[in-house]
């Protein structure tokens, strides 16, 4: 539905480099990345608001690279919504229909329809300055959707909202996406936001796509340490494959002073990634589960994060584990206490150096 | 006592506002004292005499139509110029931007002299004069003089106000089906309205009271190129101080009336 091929362009000192992306029909795609990574620029280029140095954009199978923004049929909701403050809510929603020469009766019917779908019928005669963040967001969505775009581009649509409104609006965005069946690219730097809406996601850094895939893929199989770090994997450990066996035992990996066997790993120096929530903590005297890698570790620090506990451990290398309050209740979690760590081999991911 | 949106908390706040307001009071009082001095000095019989005279009526009419024409012309230039200077960077942008401000810092008298030299001493100027559009010592010259001196205020105000219009609004309009012209006409222009009105007010105020360059470029021929500001000069130069002050008061009254009316009616949210 949306295809970007080798998109390269400059904006001041920033350069977006050979960006490729394929968003499927009806898919909700979240474009992730830290601030300044080029997410908004990519969206603006897709809208036709930036001239490309190289590359091509396709929307619904048609090349749009050389087309003006108005001929691309995109619904664009910029950050902070960019509502027209000199118009009423109705004026804002009607704006695109008027620009496209839709007759007044048809435009009124469409404005009413989209206002009903988004629950803002009662706001139609209101002026923009008095609206709340959530109301503005709905008006901006209505303005973008009323022209029946082929794709919907949302630039940090909920970043200006408080946390509870953000959650509610994310749910609504997902509902609207389903209802209008329009391929959507949603720009965000919040991981939680992506989890609540995305079918797939892409992670951008300094104008280069690092990884594109489902959130589970990004979470469990990051292709580099930046992706692992962005996906909040706090255990990124330098390791080395010291021995490669011909048997099913696989390879022997050395991390700090420890050595253990794993089914497979890339050759030589590697980065070993273990998600903190995949680490199991056991009392020293407990039986070690079969098939898991087990080794001793001491507790350095425990922080209560409300919904989970963050345990900092020392196992001749630093490790962080997240425990639910229920699991934590069964363990002596005091700094200095020695425990046993158990990790399933499939929970260890390697990134080649 | 709340002032605007600022709540007053304690005597320190009151002292602060009193200190800041002191300057407003001093300035306004001094201006009112000056006007009052004129009003007390003149003999009101001579005021009536001046008001009834035909040449004052003509000068008033000349002042009003020339300044109004200047405002219209200035706004016509200011909107596209302000937009281009605000939105685009091009070779010579800094030079163009600086030249716009030049008449603001230029002594107005020099503008009159420069215009006179241009239209009488240069081939292009002489050609324009010969082609039937005469400016030197003609009423049209009043408008030209006022335009050169005052248009910068309108252009500067338009540029500043377009600077404040978020470019993303235009971008959204483009994605919604507008052409570049449509996005300008339907988004940028309405949002810049207040700034443009403010610039027009400043332009009118500058043009209405202009004197020096007019004396050099168009002279002050009674019944032809005389405007209220030059009438004052003419009257006082022949010793008619009271008549000169009467015209001056008329000028002040009209200027005040227009400025207050524009604020009240034209744009309540106009910020100068």
User: If you compute it from the alpha carbons, what radius of gyration of chain A comes out, rounded to the nearest whole angstrom?
Assistant: 25 Å
Query: Which secondary-structure class do the elements of chain B indicate?
Result: mainly alpha
Please, what is the average pLDDT of chain B? Answer: 87
Which term fits the overall shape of chain A? elongated
Structure characterization notes:
- The complex is a heterodimer of chains A (353) and B (272).
- In chain A, helix 2 (89-99) packs across helix 3 and helix 2 packs parallel to helix 4 (133-145).
- Chain A folds into 2 domains: 2-229, P-loop containing nucleotide triphosphate hydrolases (Rossmann fold, 3-Layer(aba) Sandwich), CATH 3.40.50; 233-352, RNA polymerase II/Efflux pump adaptor protein, barrel-sandwich hybrid domain (OB fold (Dihydrolipoamide Acetyltransferase, E2P), Beta Barrel), CATH 2.40.50.
- Chain A starts with a strand and ends with a strand.
- In chain A, the strands form 4 sheets. In chain A, strands 6-7-8-3-9-10 form a 6-stranded mixed beta sheet, with helices on both faces. A 5-stranded antiparallel beta sheet of chain A has the order 13-12-11-14-20. A 5-stranded antiparallel beta sheet of chain A has the order 15-19-16-17-18.
- The model of chain A has no long low-confidence stretch (mean pLDDT 88).
- Chain A is elongated.
- Chain A has helices at 39-47, 89-99, 104-117, 133-145, 163-180, 191-197, 215-220, 225-230, 325-329, and strands spanning 2-11, 14-23, 28-32, 54-59, 62-63, 74-77, 151-155, 183-188, 200-205, 208-213, 235-244, 251-255, 258-262, 269-274, 280-283, 293-304, 309-314, 318-323, 338-343, 348-352.
- Chain A is α+β, with helices and mostly antiparallel strands and 353 residues long.
- Chain B has 2 domains: 1-41; 44-266, MetI-like (MetI-like fold, Orthogonal Bundle).
- In chain B, helix 3 runs parallel beside helix 7, helix 3 (54-87) packs antiparallel against helix 9 (180-208) and helix 9 (180-208) packs antiparallel against helix 12 (241-266).
- The longest helix of chain B is centred in the N-terminal third of the chain and has 34 residues, at 54-87.
- Chain B is flat and about 65 Å long.
- The mean pLDDT of chain B is 87.
- The interface between A and B is medium-sized, with 24 and 18 residues.
């Amino acid at each position: 539905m949306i295809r970007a091929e080798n998109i390269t362009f400059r904006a001041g000192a920033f350069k977006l480099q050979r960006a490729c992306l394929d968003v499927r029909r009806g898919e909700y795609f979240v474009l992730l990345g830290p601030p300044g990574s080029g997410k908004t620029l990519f969206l603006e280029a897709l809208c036709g608001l930036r001239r490309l140095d190289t590359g091509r954009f396709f929307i619904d199978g048609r090349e749009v690279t050389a087309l003006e923004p108005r001929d691309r049929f995109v619904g664009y909701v910029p950050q902070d919504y960019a509502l027209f403050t000199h118009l009423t809510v109705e004026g804002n929603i009607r704006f695109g229909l008027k620009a496209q020469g839709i007759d007044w009766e048809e435009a009124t019917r469409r404005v009413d329809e989209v206002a009903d779908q988004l629950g803002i019928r009662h706001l139609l005669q209101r002026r923009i300055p008095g609206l709340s963040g959530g109301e503005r967001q709905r008006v901006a969505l209505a303005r973008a959707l009323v022209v029946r775009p082929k794709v919907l581009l949302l630039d940090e649509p909920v970043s200006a909202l408080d946390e509870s409104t953000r959650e509610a609006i994310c749910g609504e965005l997902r509902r609207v996406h389903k209802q209008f069946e329009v391929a959507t690219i949603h720009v965000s730097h919040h991981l939680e936001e992506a989890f609540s809406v995305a079918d797939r996601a892409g992670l951008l850094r300094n104008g280069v796509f690092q990884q594109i895939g489902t959130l589970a893929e990004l979470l469990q199989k990051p292709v580099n340490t930046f992706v692992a770090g962005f996906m909040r994997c706090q255990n990124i450990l330098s390791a080395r494959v010291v021995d490669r066996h011909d048997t099913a035992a696989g390879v022997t990996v050395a991390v700090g002073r420890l050595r253990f066997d794993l089914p497979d790993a890339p050759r030589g120096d590697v980065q070993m990634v273990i998600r903190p929530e995949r680490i199991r903590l056991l009392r020293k005297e407990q039986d070690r589960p079969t098939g898991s890698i087990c080794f001793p570790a001491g507790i350095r620090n425990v922080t209560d994060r409300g919904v989970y506990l963050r345990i900092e451990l020392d196992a001749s290398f630093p490790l962080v584990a997240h425990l639910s309050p229920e699991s934590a209740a069964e363990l002596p979690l005091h700094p200095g206490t020695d425990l046993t760590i158990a990790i399933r081999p499939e929970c260890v991911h390697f990134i080649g150096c | 006592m709340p002032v605007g949106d600022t709540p007053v908390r304690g005597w320190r706040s009151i002292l602060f506002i009193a200190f800041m307001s002191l300057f407003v009071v001093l300035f306004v009082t001094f201006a009112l004292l000056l006007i009052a001095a004129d009003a007390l000095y003149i003999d009101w019989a001579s005021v009536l005499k001046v008001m009834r005279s035909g040449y004052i009526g003509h000068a008033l009419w000349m002042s009003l139509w020339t300044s109004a024409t200047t405002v219209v012309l200035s706004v016509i230039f200011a909107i596209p110029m302000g937009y281009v200077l605000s939105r685009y960077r091009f070779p010579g942008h800094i030079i163009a931007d600086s030249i716009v401000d030049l008449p603001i810092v230029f002594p107005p008298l020099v503008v009159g002299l420069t215009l006179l030299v241009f239209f009488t001493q240069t081939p292009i100027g002489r050609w324009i004069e010969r082609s039937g559009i005469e400016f030197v010592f003609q009423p049209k010259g009043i408008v030209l003089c006022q335009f050169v001196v005052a248009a910068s205020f309108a252009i500067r105000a338009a540029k500043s106000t377009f600077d404040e219009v978020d470019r993303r609004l235009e971008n959204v309009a483009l994605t919604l089906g507008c052409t570049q012209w449509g996005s300008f006409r339907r988004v940028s222009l309405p949002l810049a309205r207040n700034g443009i009105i403010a610039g027009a007010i400043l332009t009118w105020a500058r043009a209405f009271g202009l004197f020096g360059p007019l004396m050099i470029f168009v002279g002050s021929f009674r019944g032809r190129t005389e405007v209220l500001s030059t009438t004052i000069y003419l009257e006082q130069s022949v010793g008619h101080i009271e008549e000169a002050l009467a015209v001056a008061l008329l000028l002040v009254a009209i200027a005040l009336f227009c400025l207050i009316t524009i604020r009240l009616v034209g744009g309540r949210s106009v910020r100068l």
